[in-house]
Amino acid sequence: MTKSIVTKSTLLMIILLAFIACDEQKKKRVLNFPKTDLASENLIPKPVKIIPTENGFALDEFTAIYTSQTGAGFEEVGKFLAEKIKSKTNMNIPVNVAEIDHMETVIYINKSDSTDLAQPEAYQLYITQDSIILNSNSAAGAFRGIQTIRQIIPETSNDTLASNPIWTIPTGKIIDAPQFEYRGAMLDVARHFFSVKDVKKFIDMLAYYKYNVLHLHLTDDQGWRIEIKSWPLLTEVGGLTEVGGESGGFYTQEDYKEIVAYAAEHHMIIVPEVDMPGHTNAASVAYPIFNGNGKKPELYEGTRVGQSTFATRKDTLYSFLDDVIGEIAAMSPGPYFHIGGDESLVTKKNDYIYFVEKVEKIVQKHNKRMIGWDEIGQANINSTSISQFWRHTDYAKDAIKKGMKVIMSPANRAYLDMQYDTLSKHGLHWAAYIPTDSAYNWTPEKYKGISKEHILGIEAPLWSETISNIDELEYLAFPRAIGYAELSWTTEENRDWENYKVRLANQAPFLDRMNVKYYASPLIDWKKSKYTYKEIKKD
Ligand code: ACM
Q1: Each residue's pLDDT tens digit, 365-398
Q2: How far is the first Cα of the chain from the last one, in angstroms, to the nearest whole number?
Q3: Ligand 1 — pocket residues by CB below 6 A?
Q4: Choice among 121, 343, 375, 486 that is catalytic
């Protein structure tokens, strides 16, 4: 097969040809499709608007993908979709290949300058019998749009209707955009370390549900997990342990860059967190000069909090932090740097405030916006900094008074490490038990009197005191992380537990295909999985 990249002018021709090139047999197959209903597809998060037209688009070996050649990143989005179609259906769908002899249907990923698509990450899908046109004005929007396409490709083909297998996609129109610009999950790699491979799998799952942020809690009392070249003992000493005395570990800078690049391929950013001035035992064991709690620091494998602090009045601490923040910021293309700031219970209040104000300046010097847990609202900081509300409504409201935005992560609703119920195998319950319905049934847009205009987005943190491997991670994260995806993306009037519950039940085949060990909540009537291809089941 001759492969050549399609130019813009031939592209239009190809699409036109595709519209008219259906042979008689194909037309008959299309007409024979049972009536479809795009509106009852199991999409999560639920799109803004779905207008069904009750016909079928045939995804089969005669389908090709074309993408805008001018829009940066569009071709990569097309290739990503082709790869995912391959893993779901085992078909190779060509991308931007001018091989039209047998092509009958097209998926065209188009860069559009329409003002209807001005909102970041907005996309529109027009699905007819012959074509799927995905319009967006950014590759990020197109990437969100292809997650919708992935979700409406059925798990199985209806090969009874034709000599070759066809995956019937319902026709209609989808208009969509997110309600919040920040849609995140957090993974604590400090209490237990998770490998690059585990983090990538978590990214795969989050991206499918249109998350755009993974926050990595990189340091805590029990371990320092990111290599800092100018202060090597942080990982050489501070990375040796984890909760329960297991093996510890850390990301080299190359590992971290690999995670950042993988996230970027999924149009996600990594928000790095160095938690301080409390939660710093591992750093102080490596460099005792920065220890501020008056005790001899020793490696710690327990789960208590609030014992450690940096010596916040020491000037050398801030040159150290300039190095640490500088090295991490240089590897993190996203706009944020998280300084932690929670539970500094043995730091005097004045010293805490002094610290947060000094560190904010360092973060800004490295061209990042500071995020901190809600306690940072006590300091006199800039309106560009961001408060992550986890526990203290008053501190979050103090931040809002300073003009700051808030990320909503209330522990009793949004913490992925809370147990589902008293029978849960893993997790804690100091904030609440959070069953699958309670995770979904709240309104972050007006929670505790914090109104939507002040909210940057939602984040679901997964602390790892009680989990040490990917299966345990998945047990706590899924299915609740899927609900948080909908809370972040879909507006309140478009959400409904009864309706969501059915869509969630239908995620089972995907979760099984991805080998995700989710918690099969008894509140959900999980749909049994079906596999089209044996080899899919293996990976
Ligand atoms: C926290 O849970 N300590 C932010």
Answers
A1: 999 999 999 999 999 999 999 999 999 999 999 9
A2: 30
A3: 342-343, 373, 390
A4: 343
